[in-house]
Here is the input.
Amino acid sequence: MTSEQTRNDQLSLLSWMSAEKVATARIMVVGCGALGNEVLKNLALIGVGHLTLVDFDRVEPRNLSRSILFTEQDAVLQRPKVEAAAERIRDISPKTEVETINGDIAYDVGLGLVRNMDVVIGCVDNRWARYCINRLCMRANKPWVDGGIDGLEGTARVFRPEENCYACNLGPEALKDLAWRMPCAGIIRRNQEAGRAATTPITASVIAAVQVQEALKLIHREQLEAGELTSLCGKMFCYEGQHLTTKTVSFQAYDDDCPVHERWEPVIASDMTTMMTVGESLKRLKMLLKSDEVSFTLENAFVDFVEHKATGRQTNVMLPARAVAEYIELHTALRGCLTGDLLQHEYHEIDDTFPYQQLTLKELGIPESEILYTNHGFVEVNN
Here is the structure.
């Protein structure tokens, strides 16, 4: 008997779980740290058919004490976390398809990719990343499961379109932190000051188990709708390990006026790719949308130059706005300049007046499998 047959036999013993649904499920995991490691381990052991891993970080020695999928050699080589984790997942579950994105959920994950998932699991440590996951999932009409850990404490929550929204649950202080993209509740700062690790593998295991259980419920939609299963959506599971207490509290908000809720559909199919130039793309869009006046919006602005306020001197940049700060830091002519000393010349809308028609969509910062927000509808961009 093969390991796959054994796994399916074990799954069949769970009355509510379908081995077929698990084997065909498509799940994205954002964040491959301590929590992400445990989530991925569980998903691999249970034999989920397709996993997409998203993380921009590399393995470091400090990760090894709480990350089951990383080895000392990974840390020595400073391998991308997604690469190291994917290798171990394939060892655990050879039939699981693993796709990796060594990038940032805010900029490098196309909405088209999220639309192809059954559920997204967030294993991130800051509000900005959670906000970005939530925005993508709401637009794509997909549920997502959030987890957070801090020392011996952890939480898990479920968000579903038209039921519960992460953005709607944010209060004034959280919104302030979001603007600065700060880690939740100053977790990193507090732990650095105290000279301790941010979490333990035990806490990560507990919260990851709840997250995976909730994700599996979400792919068994019929049982949920029939009341055979109860989702955590609208509630928050809280774990406190020091005195071993748990509780589930209400955590639900869905404001009809929240702009994050805009669902990007219907989506118009196309043969466009990110390697097409702006000029080629606009021409193709005009044909698809049957209009001579077409434009599309950039999620992240494109900067062609920066101007020094005091001198008026301009320096060409030709990068997405998210990459400008690093460019300034490394560029000899701009080194030592503060962000406040410079003005960025940005493009947010792309149409026939855009002066750099020869640039590709990729050079504008548009990720693969994206959905373009045009003035006439939503259009897919393929790999």
About this structure: The CA atoms of residues 110 and 370 lie 4 Å apart. DSSP finds 13 helices and 14 strands in the chain. Residues 182-194 have pLDDT under 50 and may be disordered. The longest helix spans residues 201-219.
